[in-house]
Amino acid sequence: GERAIYVVGIATAVGFLLQFLVLVPATLSLGIRYRPIFNFRHPAIKKLLRLGIPLFLYLAVASASSVMERNLASRLSAGAVSTLSYALRLFTVPSNFMAAPLAIVAYPGFAREAARVRRGELGAQVAKIFRLVIFLFLPVTIWTVINALVVTRLLYEHGRFLSANSLLTARVLAVYSVGILPNAIAMVLLRCYFAVEDTITPLFAETLALISFVLAAPILSRHFGIGGLVAARASAFFLVTGVLVYVLARRKALLNLDWDFLNFLIRTVVASSGMGVISWLGLHLLNGPFNSGGTMVRFMVAIMLMAISGATYLFLARLLKLGEARQIWTTVLGILPGNRGPQ
């Protein structure tokens, strides 16, 4: 009944509590014992303030963009804020399930190399991860833009969420999804900045993006409605990533954007475009069963589209001799039980 939403809130809070409790035994097993020492002149305090204050401001500025986006959406039409929320949840799925784990795994290596003389092999590691992120998230971006309606109808079109709601949410998701790749790149590159103890550049990039959003969002939303508002937000992702890449490449010399990288980028674009064509054709061929079927049928159709698209992309990538395709294939084989990988 009317109390159902409170049950969902309580269940979410309990989930966070359980997540914390599960981590406690693992932390204790590391042998770390915390003992408070009130020495405010310790060098770590100065370092904490020097790095932490810009990082706190960075998070505040990033949150300000979201607040302003919802504020402008509330002025457009009834339900616009809900539509944004539904689309944004789906937009963050690739980042949460792929980019965030990749960034977490890459950070210890970044920090280790940054601590060495002349930053060791940090540049090589950043370049490798940078290429891998592009290789993974460019096809994800294209696939999500093409199949935004499929994903929205599969996950949301139940109960009072009607076809018209799905169509509007899918349009917003498609525009949002243009920013999947730059958002994933920024998420990984931020770990490199943290490794070299630079929190000023991320703050500058996010502030610049906020200013551009404040200037562009009211104009675009006035002329193009919610689509214009989301386009302004997606453009901000590109601006943040552009600043991070530029500073890392030109000012810090940790990212080499040479002809070899351009060659890799062109081949990745070709493979992703081919995947996009096959995904679009598959969507039109399976559109009938998807529209007429129930939840399970729609789920199977979505899985088929993902499998066909993924296989096509990996095939084209291997055909174009992209080393990242072999790396992913070897990793997948190594994960499978009873498989020792390539002989």
Notable traits:
343 residues; single chain; 12 helices; globular; mainly alpha
Q: What can you tell me about this protein's structure?
A:
- This protein has 343 residues and is an all-alpha fold.
- The chain has twelve helices and no strands.
- Helix 6 crosses helix 8 (200-251).
- The relative contact order is 0.10.
Category by helix and strand content: mainly alpha
Shape: globular
As a percent range, the share of helical residues equals over 70%
- The radius of gyration over CA amounts to 22 Å
**Strand share of the residues?**
under 5%
Using DSSP, what is the number of strands?
0
Topology readout:
Layout: H1 4-29, H2 43-74, H3 80-114, H4 122-146, H5 148-156, H6 163-177, H7 180-195, H8 200-251, H9 259-285, H10 287-292, H11 295-319, H12 323-335
Helix pairs in contact: 2-8, 3-4, 3-6, 3-7, 4-6, 4-7, 4-9, 5-6, 5-11, 6-8, 7-8, 9-11, 11-12
